[in-house]
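Chain A, query sequence.
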Amino acid sequence: MRFTRSYAIILLTTSFCFGSLFTHAQAASNGDTRKKAFELFRQDKYIQALPLFEELAVKNPDDRDVLVGLGVCLVSESATLEDQDAGARERVRARNLFLKAKKLGQTSPLLDNMLQTIPEDGVVKYDNSPTAQALKAGEAAFARNDFDGAIENYQKILQLEPRNYTAVLWIGDSYFGKKDWTKAAEWYQKAIDLEPNIETAHRYYGDMLLKNGDVAGSRTRFIQAVVADPYNPITWRALKSWADTNKAELKRVHIETPNNVSQQDEKNITITMNPNDSEESSSAWLIYGMTKASWRGDQFKKRFPKEPRYRHSLDEEADALSAAATVLSESKQSGKKKNASSLPKDPNLLLLLKLQQASMIEPYVLLNAADEGIAKDYAAYREKNRKKLEEYLSAFVVPAVP
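Chain A, predicted structure.
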């Protein structure tokens, strides 16, 4: 779905992101107005659909599908308004409609994306610089479905700033609106080449490929969007929508690790074990706790001498999980275990071994087990291991192409 992007970069096609809502609305259609409104919406003609949704919302103020449709149309119209205060009021009204729809049970990814990105006060400020004014004019043209006019204005920005990511991306988006898929792909790739760690162009490209039936290609692009920005819920919602569209499910990858290390000061670190654990679990989680305790002692200072205080890090968690996995592997090969090929009964330990054998413990920690401390290590790891992160998601999280 394309609409005003000045306050947020959001993209999922109508059929991809809002499809279940449209299907529901169409099935419930009792009149020509409703049918025509959602048909215009499906065609991305939000300005034309706006008065129809206004009429429907008066008649059905608690229709959650109509509320979302009206909200999107208002956001699109807000880009065409010269008065910035009037545009802000439109966006605030749209946001309130989205909140009401959510309260009524609407759960579309589009709704969550809009709520994540529309400012609470609705304010989008443009200064008087040539770049900002060209951006504003391009957004207004785009909202009116004048895609050639939008491209013309975004090109003006590139004349001033040849490496302006937003202008490059939105030229691609405008070609998407024109259904010129070749040009759209070309400009999306230009945006990716400029800023591979911004997720939007990856996601836009994936959306376009999916719209044109390239399920495998879109899968790759949505994975790359997550790798670009894994701590942004929009990227995961897009990946889940890809799976939903293809009647598949993302795999939940999670190891329940014990919180068995407590600390009073640098010299008083305690490891607590669960007496109900099996011998196998106890040995693994004991070394896990011991490794983490060492990081709370001197190990963190040695590894991160410039950081003033301890934090949970990728190195610590990967080190502790690897140590636990090594204990498991060695126990299977020791003389005490005659059946060396037997697998752990505990699903957490079984997953841990699989990750170790695939050399994917670090990607797992960063993408499926990160906290605020671990997240600080992501950018540096991605710089050297982008392909490995993609391979992890492909092998462990995202189902194969149906």
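The longest strand covers residues 261-265. The chain has a mean pLDDT of 87.
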